[in-house]
Amino acid sequence: MSTPSEKAEIVVLGSGVSGLTTALTLLENGYDVRIIAREHFNNTVSANAAAVWFPYKALPVEKVVKWSNLSYVKFKELAGIPESGVSIIPFRIIEPADETPFWLDALPKEAEMSRRNITVLGSDFISYSCSIPLIETHIYLPFLHDKFLENGGTIQYQEIKNIKRLAKQHPVINCTGLGSRELCNDKELYPIHGQTLKIKSTKNTIGLAFDKFPNEPDNELAYFIPRSDCTILGGSAFKNVESKAIDEDLTQRIIDRCLLLDPELETEHIISSHVGLRPGRTQIRLEQDPEASIIHNYGHGGAGFTVSWGCAAEVLTLVQNL
Predict the structure, then answer these.
(1) Of the candidates 174, 137, 181, the residue with the CA atom closest to the CA atom of residue 46
(2) Cα–Cα nearest to 242, from 39, 45, 15, 60
(3) Which of 5, 123, 149, 198 has its CA 20 to 30 A from that of 319?
(4) Domain total in the chain
(5) For the domain that residue 312 is a member of, what is the CATH number?
């Protein structure tokens, strides 16, 4: 690939958080960048994400830790820009008492981790308290989109059916997420179904995530995330479920679990319900394609926002080294 001074236009496929972040990173490092996307960012799975910094359902661990740490630092910087939609909030994460979670290694020291032993429904757990970035998607995605355009980037809405043909004309960064199942015939990709609901904001709510709720299925979890416009409750992580239909029984189970953890949540009035299909994969694919002028950056599972800046930095390195 060419150096920035040669003004090679790079095409980034996809307008979700990975596509926008990667495109902006390349643009800010001197490259001409055009996003080609099948849909507007408002219609991507990123728009429905309950986005807090937390590495979830993403591998390999060593790389996810590094990328998550880099992203945390960038989000902390963005938290100083009010219009970014990023803030640093107190958060609690409940984990089994007999496990040491890998995400602890991704937290910078300034996150001020503390822990205490708790019992939930007769089982022993550790409650970790720390400060992590909250990314309000309805503010943050337009922020990235507008910043990209203001810095000279261009966006074209079109469905690409043949990525290798496109790569003969331009270097391509593939950030199509689940779309790479068809685009790249990637059989390692699969959907991870996530259902959430928005309720009225409750004063002084501290966000919480509880992955392994006692006596509940492994693919159902409990979390609530306070935002400026609402509180998001979740959730689910059903592997290989393609349906985007709202499951009302699941909604009630989510509400029941969250109320058990915080009875003050105002769950009487549901603002809206959402289903998103996260791009799960055996591990994140971030590499140069051996057969074409393509760098792949997809398969981020439930950590798309969490690894976004770290992955974009690695894409930049790959571009610079070619």
Answers:
(1) 137
(2) 45
(3) 149
(4) 1
(5) 3.40.50.720
